Predict the 3D structure of the following.
Amino acid sequence: MAKARLCEDFNEECRDIVEQLFVNFISYSKKQTFFHEGDDIGIMFLVCSGWAARAIHLADGRRQITEIFLPGDLFPVHASISQGVIEDEIVALGECRVTTCSPGALNEASRQTNALTRTLWWLSQRDAAILRMWIAMNGQYRVYERVAHLVCEVLERLKHVGLGEGNRFDFPLTQQEIGDIIGATPVHVSRSLKQIRDAGLLDIQGGVLQVHDLERLQKAAHFNPGYLNPR
């Protein structure tokens, strides 16, 4: 089984390195945890299929999802530079298949290959850009706009790795999980999804999301994909 490429700039040389380093495959079920808060980072994951999330749990039981990992994503990216402990939780959002490598092995390979170093830098810059956008989105956008923006971002990221053909893709998120990402209650998420559906922009059936009018959805979301391709 060929491994997903990490990003659009991942050249053939880097893909060969990844094929050699990431040799073990593991399957995770929904809600199964990759890392708990305080765990040592002794392994890195490359997502082959499925979704995972990074989340912070509050003392009263609430949760904020701060990052989602899609097919082709590598995590934790910073472990390739410096190991340590994880400060939050990383959990599968559905059936998730990954391949693994030690941070030390990837770090050593990056020392020998400038292209791999550049790709790891690209990934870290992209992750930081997504975090900044999520902060702005959750702070300033209406719930309707946040939901639309999340869909646009996911679709754009999937297209980077050859998925999302026909603007259609697997969408395992529950309304609670969407709310945990965008800082809204499931009730507000449900209302916003209904608005977007009623506008004819998208539909979700059986865990599959179909965007019917991407241009209008992007306009409603104030979505500009430039932040997903930092230079």
The longest helix spans residues 114-140. The chain has two domains: 12-129, 141-228. The CA atoms of residues 22 and 217 lie 37 Å apart. Helices lie at 12-21, 103-112, 114-140, 143-160, 175-182, 186-198, 214-221.
